[in-house]
Task: inverse folding
């Protein structure tokens, strides 16, 4: 005689005279149902479709159950939803909503070939890691890892997505350049100790235009911050001017980028620049009188005071090929002198406008980098090879493209225009819902207690009005 094996109910602290119990019998329930909005973004922008076109799949088509686009969509959508590790996908592979937004038709996994895989519509970590671990020169003769990415195409993708976001060319744009430390703890390829940051790290180069990401290049930290800047700037500016030949372009960055090679390139290619400049005794002597004036202002008012001065400057070692316009900020604070300098090709604007309104605005780019590191896990560069870690950085970057597209397309409601990724995730993507599946439709029953229902309806309405990306 068979014994009935029934799990006990979960018992919680009661509420006065009533018991509080629970059981895992709610059917298909997801905590990430807001990801359906990202699916609408993809319908309009085709970001994941374009990303998947950057890969060559040498697998035999009759023997695969997960296309490259489905694998990439699963991985990127997982990052958007806050799942940073591949191991998370061994549980996520059962989520029907993640399967839907990843492009799966069989969202319950009922038609999987192996019996042990049935009920798991998505790929597990051992399949997903082939995206990262496939060698550059792999062919169809490789045993397991046969999905090769094309770095040149992926780099071009970020510029293409940026260009596609504009219906008409802008008159002028500002490209912000910056590097950041990506601390590593293992013995990854390209591991070097960086004296300034005080730990082993990579030093990725980022280029943004406003909130649009155009470049995320993983560099080793033994190179200077602006080492690859000329190559990347030449590629990006060239591609932009193919479509927008008349656009005015300004490059902006900190003192890592005030190098002769980059400034000479800008001057030869009708591109303006505005870079920080490391202070030295010669530069500080130029500000002696201005600093005295700033100090007197501070003594009179008791508040931080600034006095600006511009002058022509060239390095003594002739590392600069010519004199350039330098603007010095003589600032006096409660703690004392705080001189700062920038070098620029801009000639028309006044010194205070160039420094305070144009140069200082670059600080917003740091928020974009922090979004990627803190909320989209761009610093999860823990695989062995530099090539695999570069792909991880790009996966995080593509996740940023999706969320930024959602932000720019539909979140211009109220103060959502400046919402960071984490706020969007917690308020818009992390929604509890029950999924009811029949042969005729899929019904998503969102939580009745969700506090941003009006916002969600407005977002969806705006996204549904957007045209479909041409396939």
Result:
């Amino acid at each position: 005689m068979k014994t009935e094996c029934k799990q006990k109910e979960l018992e919680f602290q009661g509420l006065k005279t009533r018991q509080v119990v629970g059981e895992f019998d709610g059917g298909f329930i997801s905590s990430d149902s807001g990801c359906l909005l990202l699916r609408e973004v993809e319908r309009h922008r085709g970001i994941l479709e374009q990303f998947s076109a950057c890969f060559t799949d040498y697998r035999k088509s009759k023997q695969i159950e997960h296309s490259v686009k489905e694998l990439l969509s699963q991985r990127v959508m997982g990052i958007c939803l806050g799942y940073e590790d591949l191991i998370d996908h061994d549980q996520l592979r059962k989520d029907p909503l993640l399967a839907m937004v990843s492009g799966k038709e069989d969202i319950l996994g009922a038609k999987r070939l192996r019996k042990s895989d049935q009920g798991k519509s998505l790929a597990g970590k051992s399949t997903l890691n082939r995206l990262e671990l496939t060698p550059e020169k792999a062919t169809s003769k490789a045993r397991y890892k046969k999905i090769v990415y094309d770095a040149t195409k992926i780099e071009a993708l970020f510029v293409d997505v940026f260009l596609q976001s504009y219906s008409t060319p802008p008159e002028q744009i500002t490209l912000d350049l910056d590097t950041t430390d990506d601390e590593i703890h293992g013995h990854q390829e390209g591991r070097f100790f960086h004296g300034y940051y005080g730990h082993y790290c990579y030093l990725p180069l980022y280029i943004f235009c406003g909130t649009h990401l155009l470049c995320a290049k993983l560099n080793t930290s033994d190179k200077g911050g602006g080492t690859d800047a000329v190559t990347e700037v030449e590629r990006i500016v060239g591609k932009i001017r193919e479509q927008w030949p008349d656009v005015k372009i300004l490059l902006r960055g900190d003192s890592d980028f005030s190098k002769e090679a980059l400034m000479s390139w800008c001057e030869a290619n009708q591109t303006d620049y505005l870079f920080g400049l490391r202070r030295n005794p010669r530069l500080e002597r130029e500000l002696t009188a201005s600093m005295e004036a700033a100090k007197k202002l501070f003594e009179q008012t008791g508040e931080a005071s600034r006095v600006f001065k511009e002058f022509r400057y060239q390095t003594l070692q002739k590392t600069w090929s010519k004199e350039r316009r330098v603007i010095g900020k003589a600032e006096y604070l409660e703690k004392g002198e705080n001189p700062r300098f920038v070098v620029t090709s801009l000639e028309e604007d006044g010194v205070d406008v160039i420094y305070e309104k144009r140069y200082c605005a670059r600080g917003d780019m740091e928020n974009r980098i922090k979004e990627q590191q803190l909320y989209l896990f761009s610093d999860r560069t823990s695989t062995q090879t530099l090539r695999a870690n570069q792909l991880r950085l790009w996966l995080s970057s593509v996740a940023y493209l999706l969320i930024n597209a959602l932000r720019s397309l539909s979140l211009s409601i109220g103060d959502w225009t400046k919402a960071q990724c984490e706020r969007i995730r917690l308020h818009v993507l992390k929604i509890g819902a029950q999924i009811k599946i029949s042969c005729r439709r899929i019904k998503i029953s969102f939580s009745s207690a969700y506090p941003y229902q009006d916002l969600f309806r407005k977002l969806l309405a705006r996204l549904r009005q957007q045209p479909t990306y041409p396939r």
In short: DSSP finds 17 helices and 19 strands in the chain. Residues 152-375 form a domain with the Transposase Inhibitor Protein From Tn5; Chain A, domain 1 fold (CATH 3.90.350.10). The mean pLDDT is 93.
